[in-house]
Amino acid sequence: MQSPFAVGLALATLSSLSAQTIQAPFNALYTITNIGAIPGLTGNYGAITFDRDDPNLLLCTSWDTVGVQNLYSIPVVRDAQGHVTGFTGTLTPRAQADYIDGGLDYHPSGVLFYTRYAGSTGVNAIGQFRPGSTVPDRTNTLIGPNYIGGLAIVPSGLPGAGHLKTLRWPGGQWTDAQLAPDGNGTFDVVGEAQTATLAGGPDGFAYVPHAAPLFTGGDVMVAEFNASVLATYSIDAQGDPIVATRQVFANGFTSAFVLTVDPVTLDIVHAGWSGTTVHVIKGFNLACGQCSNYGTGLAGTGGLVPRIMWLGCPLGGETTGLNVSQGQPLGLGVIAVGFTQQSIPVFGGTLLNEAAILLTSFLSPTGTYTLPLAIPTGLSSSTLYFQAAYLDAAAVQGFSLSNGLQMQVL
To answer: What's the predicted TM-score (pTM) here?
Structure first.
């Protein structure tokens, strides 16, 4: 990143740009909301992403910090439609991600990748955490020049899926590489090569959900730090941005920096480098079936009420999913699936659907469970109802219950 003097001058120059504005044609369908700062996260913000096992936790970082646990989690607050509206609780330290910059993303294996800022070290690099690790399990040196910023692993369903992409600030060098298992639960970075040069002094980026309206079905959104905008590009057959397709999506930022996709609503979340603002951009799921929570659950161990959420786009032919959190660690139970919303007294709580189908569910050591759901095209225009129940001796009658989930399938 640039010198403190240069940053201060830039932020002072841009101070009048206090409102973030989505540009045409996107402003017809998309909105942006400033939800404020992350409580307790001091200094400049680094990369963000949602916890792979619990989408109600945001992983957040302090930029270019060394020798401390600077990767944290914080619970998010969601409205009935699942959109993040703020934060609750306190930061929980998770890991030491020395020199972290603007890239943080999960590999499908669960390995967490992050970018290591070259300004302090003189070396562009990537760190990797195996699940549960609190210090990096592997560090890979990358090609130059400039300073590594953003990083993403191309999501399933998009061209280039599984490839590692990185971006350099301020020169905009975009690189592609493949990831090869190294036998230790981490990965070799193989064949890294520059494939594009992007404008605007870019840093963080995220792939746009492929069902998002007004996009091509294969796009990437880039935070342009120097230009103070979010820009979008169509991608080619390798998942790399096509430079000639650049469009400004939104402007008015004072330190456009890092982006991530909310796995529940497909909103894109932006955090500014200045460490004062987080924005939620809505509209990417408008072509999907809409979901919402209803009813109340029943507490179990620790007084926690299991919480059920949806993941992704409920659309015929797509793969979406369910996530349960706040359950008893290693708890055994079921997910009840129904076709009508009910309110039936059971176990000291309420059964919220008719439980036409019961799916066995086994919680992880952290009390979470994720169930992928492939939506058959024959279920289009249907509405499904879900609720989780777990054996739990600490519950009133031996079972804890989640709230309900209504999923409309288009």
So the answer is: 0.94
